[in-house]
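Thread: uroporphyrinogen-III C-methyltransferase, structure

OP (GT): Posting the sequence first so everyone is looking at the same thing. Length is 260 residues per the record. Can we get the structure tokens written out before standup tomorrow? I want them in the notebook alongside the other entries.
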Amino acid sequence: MSKLPSDQNQTAIGRHVAFVGAGPGDPELLTRKAHNALLAADVVIYDRLVSRPILDLCRAGAIMVPVGKEGFGPSKSQQEINALLVAHAQNGVCVVRLKGGDPTVFGRLDEEIDALEPEGITWDIVPGITAASASVAAIGQSLTKRGRNQAVRYMTAHDMQGFAEHDWHTLAREGEVAAVYMGKRAARFVQGRMLMHGASPATPVSIVENASRPDQRIISSTLARLEADLAKAGLSGPALMFLGLAPRAAQMELQEGIAL
């Protein structure tokens, strides 16, 4: 196995890659271990969604290599990213692969590890705060709640074939909660699948753009209004969608209206 013990000094060892979670964008949400890794890195290979304040924390003089991926837009292939990781690590320098959020959540982590191990390159993982955690905090809700849901589903709206299929019948049940990553362009697809499988048109949907950042925006919607509300909002930043959750203020207004 190529993973090193957590108490070993990784920065003193060549042919090593640290997979570091940059969190949702607020530099104050970066872990201390992640910050230390950035200060030690000779090469930082970073994703498009990593915020500028996080990049500014990297060691002065570090080689900064952008490998941003953008849905339906120009991007480096996974094979190109893998080759960059291997090439820099084989030079014996300290390499950080900096990923937005948490590297283990929709981060193609396994594919990159699989490229390193045959080359004898060691690796470790520094977790980060994933977008779902930052976004649910922004709307003042909990991902799970007694009497409502005992599980939450993290799902992507896209897979290698296009829009991703899921267990829509289960997701459409009242009280279910799902955090949908990369869902902006798939909103109409998600809306249609949910309604087709029996979800109420009044099912709450929350969209959080740029979670934790100064330009954070929250859109409170429903399945029935989802596509129209997103079109009106004109989102341009990274966004996470919650199925089955309303922002706390909107939920309270709805409950008060029902009570009246």
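GT: Both are above now. Quick notes for whoever picks this up: Residues 78-90 form the longest helix (13 residues). The domain at 132-259 is CATH 3.30.950.10 (Methyltransferase, Cobalt-precorrin-4 Transmethylase; Domain 2).
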